[in-house]
Amino acid sequence: KLCVLFPLTELFKVIGPNQPITAFVDKDALLHCHVSPSMSVVGMEVRWFRASESSAIVHLYQNGRDQDAQQMPAYQGRTEMLRDGFANGSVSLRIRNIRPADDGLYTCFFQLNNVYEETMLELKVIGLGSAPHISVDSYQDGGIQLVCKSTGWYPEPKVLWRDHNGEQLPSLFERKSEKNDGLFEIQTSVIMIKKLKQNMSCTVGNPLFDQEKKASIYISDSFFLRGYPWMVALSVILVILGFFLLLASYFFWKQYTAKGKQNVNEYRVSRVFLKTVIFKNVRKVESVE
């Protein structure tokens, strides 16, 4: 005996949300659909599956109970069918601990005997990553290379460098990588030159959700001097040389002063000695006469 399933829209139809459902990573998502006209769905089969493949069962309610054994491994232990609205034809599926892999289209499927209807809805997963971290990487091209890094974003985030006036600056490079958990890490850099007044900011944002995270940095003049170590070394050498020159000048001045005093003393001693000799000779001459 052949059993054929066919849709009968005159009996009921399935209605889902007309806007995508959004959910944050590591939080819960609640998917809704209902039959119209309103009727009890307690005796129906209610199936949630990924729209790309009907056998990819996210959750199955059949014969009055949940059929967990038929779930995809990725959803086992993470789903719950809320039955509060079954009497009125309303069905909600809770998915716990949302992951980036949960992003996409889902099908809500109802079957009553040989009659079935379904609708599709979209789940958009949002991952708000960490606050950006700015670090000084190196000195090049007459400026300082700054690197901005942030992790834990989904989908791929957008990133902007801005100066103190809020003007956007071009990135030196930008690298985005997807981690094993499906979240994205972003790393970008910019060259900061001294005339930019040393104020910079890095802003990372989710393209689907109007929320950004921002970090700022202030670079003092001393950082730019470090970019030219030969200038610093030359300044230190000149200071040291100046100190030694002053020290040497003082030493020679002391020597010269001491020598001058010594010469004066020697001159005085020699004059006294000469006077003594002359005086003795004069006395001798006088005594002879």
From TrEMBL:
Keywords: Disulfide bond, Immunoglobulin domain, Membrane, Transmembrane, Transmembrane helix. It is found in: Membrane. CDD domains: IgV_MOG_like (cd05713). PANTHER family: BG-LIKE ANTIGEN 1-RELATED, BUTYROPHILIN. Coiled coil: none annotated. GO terms for molecular function: signaling receptor binding. This is Ig-like domain-containing protein. It comes from the Eukaryota. InterPro entries: BTN3A2-like_Ig-C, Ig-like_dom, Ig-like_dom_sf, Ig-like_fold, Ig_sub, Ig_V-set, IgSF_BTN/MOG. Residues 7-108, 132-220 form the Ig-like domain. Signal peptide: none annotated. One of its GO terms (biological process) is regulation of cytokine production. One of its GO terms (cellular component) is external side of plasma membrane. Its main location: membrane. The keyword Transport does not apply. The chain crosses the membrane at residues 228-253. The keyword RNA-binding does not apply. It holds the Pfam family C2-set_3.
